[in-house]
Amino acid sequence: MGHLAIDAVRCKGCGLCIDACPRGLIKKSGKLNERGYEFVVLQQDAGQCSGCTMCAVSCPDQGIEVWNDRGRQSFVTTSGLTEKMTHYCPGCTHGVIHRIVAEVLQELGVMGRTIGVAPVGCAVLAYEYFSCDMFEAAHGRAPAVATGAKRARPNSIVWTYQGDGDLASIGGNEILHAANRGERITVIFVNNAVYGMTGGQMAPTTLLGQKTTTSPFGRDAATSGHPLRVSELLASLGTPAYIARGSVHDGAHVLKTKKLIKRAFELQRDDRCFSMIEVLSTCPTNWGLSPCEATEWLEKNMIPAYPLGVVKDSFAPPSHVPTAPISVPTGGV
């Protein structure tokens, strides 16, 4: 058995932990915390907790800690992160991605020689959340800044954290040539199919039929082209690389995505190749959905368009690399 603690101040009341708990032990409190969010609390029968940690794994705000029945902490929510609370909207899974990246850097023992690069976008304040050195880059220019940092300090672990508007649009040229040169950097590419920070406009990754503030009737291939599948595009380059796509819409996929991210950083640690992990993420605010509805929409619509798994692994047997069918569903948010 296990038990857990909820930090009512950090909680933004997104409810993802409620959906994640297989035993239904978490509920809304009906009260607001000092930041104005309705925080969650444990049900009276919380003693039935199995210690599975899925609530903490799914929490975007590092607001839940879980212990097993021996009293040993089995899930640490702030490993590699600062104590500062994030600015993200309730239910935004940027916080989940932050945590698993930070955990990987801690587990590999490289945090002390790690340099992160965050450009303009929802994660523009990432330097306040990670316990490593960080650069701020101009919009789309993170791969160029990372290239300079890695070449100047080749023993450093250098990584970028970029959204789809940043990486696939204004930064498309940057990422293409960094990958083609085989720069020994790791890219965390967050794909939520919209421009998040600037108002939910259509992004290069917006799905066909998906409604945004600049495509109110849905994206039309005749006028806007098809969604860019960046991972497949970069995988077509001849340069050795590791490219994979994961998702953080539920606890099981969070754990799988963490393994992909760990493999990417291990390859950089061993000075092997360029690596990029695309992470499918939600944007409840700009999608106009609740956090839980957003995870369902991602699973139903984004995963068929952007299949999960390893897209390219130059250091694995050919059978390890699946061939993903191209399938782009229609229908907007």
Describe it.
The chain contains eleven helices and twelve strands. The strands form three sheets. Strands 7-6-8-9-11-10-12 form a seven-stranded mixed β-sheet, sandwiched between helices. The protein starts with a strand and ends in a 20-residue tail after the last strand. The mean pLDDT is about 90. About 50% of the residues are buried. It has two domains: about 5-75, Alpha-Beta Plaits, CATH 3.30.70.20; about 95-320, Thiamin diphosphate (ThDP)-binding fold, Pyr/PP domains (Rossmann fold), CATH 3.40.50. By secondary structure, the protein is α/β, with parallel strands linked by helices.
Map the helices and strands.
Elements: E1 3-6, H1 16-20, E2 26-32, E3 38-42, H2 54-58, E4 64-67, E5 73-75, H3 94-107, E6 114-118, E7 133-136, H4 142-152, E8 157-163, H5 164-170, H6 172-181, E9 186-191, H7 221-224, H8 230-235, E10 241-247, H9 251-269, E11 274-280, H10 284-287, H11 291-305, E12 309-313
Parallel strand pairs: 6-7, 6-8, 8-9, 9-11, 10-11
Antiparallel strand pairs: 1-4, 2-3, 4-5, 10-12
